């Protein structure tokens, strides 16, 4: 059969090839707004959203003011394929790769205002007064840790004084550890760190007041027994300073991924206690007030975002991703996942019936 139709089949095959060989007009990038999407924030969440949009040739602008949550940390961990790289390297590699895609761009700057123009468009303005329009907004603006101003603490934050066990715990495993927070946070912190460190002193800095203890007892009646089980000493004295005596960036072992910091914590009665590492639980706040000002619902200090509907906020066309959003997770893998999820939803929403009101008038040029 194949042999009998050989000539005809070859001709039949070549015909469409001739069509394919003629130049295909490029997709027109003409939209009623400057960009289809504007992403505010260039951490892993914003960069991931930008990558997803770039891959399907959506037009997008990312604007980033460069105040990253993990900006001061030595290395980023628990990001498969990139475990232990510096956060700056991780972001630079992402920017390099994304910069090859022609429909998206990135620039440094601070957005100071977002206005809804009509049901299909937004206008953002940067600190220099430049304005850009888009049909969707992705808020990837991150959060900011409110580190107490106790001398030595903000200066050494993220370098032997850390925030999450997954991020930096392994490098300081089995070292004498101090826990820094109010007493009500300590049982939860012990649970998280118990497989990494067991020489634990909780420096609760005068927080053991009757009101705090009563609230903790009501929430977790067995908290004292729990701390005793894990051999946690509790120190209620007021912290006056934290002094570094050894830098784990210098005294470190590449072989077993250990960093050996040393600190002396000074207390208000003149006592000093040595510890190798601190694990903290301090409050945090939104890095930017833009989402709240636009009308995004705030849930426990976070921008409301529904992951079932692709990270949409309560406002049509506005998405919230990464640490800033309310889905209860704050780490680089989540930032990347949520950014990607918003990109997918945005791409499909431009086509969906439900989104037809916000559908761009786009000329494809086919
Ligand atoms: C000490 C420390 C260590 C950490 N280590 C790890 C780790 O090892 N592994 C891990 O998975 N996670 C780690 N994290 C968590 C990680 O940093 C965050 O989960 C991650 O950075 C969240 O990414 P994001 O893109 O949401 O926010 P960010 O990375 O914080 O980026 C937000 C960006 O938005 C910008 N922005 C805000 N407002 C505006 C505006 N108005 N205009 C323009 N730009 C704006 C900011 O300047 C910033 O550049 C660590 C966190 C801390 C505090
Ligand atoms: C909304 O505003 C954009 C940008 O100014 C404009 O191009 C578009 O035509 C407007 N759409 C409607 C429905 O008014
Ligand atoms: C933009 O900021 C990044 C770091 O966030 C920096 O590496 C880069 O040089 C900046 N670009 C310009 C043009 O200033
Ligand atoms: C300790 O408590 C004092 C007084 O409330 C406060 O000013 C300081 O920031 C706290 N320090 C730490 C490390 O929590
Ligand atoms: C803890 O310290 C605070 C502040 O000095 C004090 O008010 C409180 O009584 C102390 N609590 C205990 C249980 O000692
Ligand atoms: C840490 O704190 C010390 C004071 O104890 C200060 O001199 C130093 O600059 C801080 N930062 C680092 C990275 O060591
Ligand atoms: C998220 O969206 C889903 C699907 O529309 C909906 O069922 C759910 O109630 C929403 N969740 C919240 C918290 O709004």
UniProtKB/TrEMBL annotation:
GO terms for molecular function: oxidoreductase activity. It comes from the Eukaryota. Residues 1-21 form the signal peptide. Keywords: Flavoprotein, Oxidoreductase, Signal. InterPro entries: FAD/NAD-bd_sf, FAD/NAD-binding_dom, Ferredoxin-NADP_redctase_2. Coiled coil: none annotated. GO terms for biological process: cellular response to toxic substance. The keyword Disulfide bond does not apply. Pfam families: Pyr_redox_2. Residues 36-176 form the FAD/NAD(P)-binding domain. Belongs to the class-II pyridine nucleotide-disulfide oxidoreductase family. This is FAD/NAD(P)-binding domain-containing protein. The lineage of its organism: Eukaryota, Fungi, Dikarya, Ascomycota, Pezizomycotina.
């Amino acid at each position: 059969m194949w042999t009998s139709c050989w000539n005809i089949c070859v001709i039949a095959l070549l015909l469409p090839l001739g069509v394919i060989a003629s130049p295909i007009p490029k997709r027109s990038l003409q939209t009623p707004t400057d960009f289809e999407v504007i992403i505010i924030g260039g951490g892993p969440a914003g960069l991931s959203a930008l990558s997803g949009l770039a891959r399907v040739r959506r037009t997008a602008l990312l604007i980033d003011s460069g105040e990253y949550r993990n900006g001061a940390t030595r290395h980023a961990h628990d990001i498969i394929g990139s475990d232990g790289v510096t956060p700056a390297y991780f972001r630079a590699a992402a920017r390099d790769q994304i910069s090859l895609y022609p429909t998206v761009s990135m620039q440094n700057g601070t957005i100071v205002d977002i206005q809804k123009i009509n049901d299909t468009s937004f206008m953002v303005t940067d600190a220099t007064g430049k304005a850009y329009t888009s049909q969707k907004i992705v808020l990837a603006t991150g959060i900011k840790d409110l580190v107490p101003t106790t001398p030595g603490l903000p200066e050494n934050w993220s370098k032997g004084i850390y925030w999450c066990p997954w991020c930096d715990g392994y490098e300081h495993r089995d070292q004498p550890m101090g826990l820094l927070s109010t007493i009500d946070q300590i049982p939860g912190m012990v649970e998280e760190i118990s497989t990494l460190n067991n020489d634990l002193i909780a420096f609760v800095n005068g927080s053991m007041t009757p009101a705090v203890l009563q609230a903790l007892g009501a929430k977790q009646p067995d908290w004292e027994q729990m701390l005793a089980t894990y051999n946690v000493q509790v120190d209620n004295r007021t912290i006056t300073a934290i002094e570094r005596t050894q830098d784990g960036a210098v005294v470190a072992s590449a072989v077993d991924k250990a960093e050996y910091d040393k600190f002396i914590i000074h207390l208000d009665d003149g006592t000093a206690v040595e510890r190798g590492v601190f694990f903290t639980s301090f409050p945090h706040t939104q890095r930017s007030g833009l989402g709240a000002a636009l009308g995004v619902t705030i849930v426990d200090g976070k921008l409301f975002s529904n992951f079932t509907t692709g990270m949409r906020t309560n406002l049509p066309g506005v998405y919230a991703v990464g640490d800033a959003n309310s889905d209860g997770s704050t780490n680089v893998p989540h930032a990347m996942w949520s950014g990607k999820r918003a990109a997918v939803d945005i791409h499909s929403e431009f086509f969906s019936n439900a989104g037809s009101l916000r559908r761009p008038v786009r000329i494809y040029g086919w």
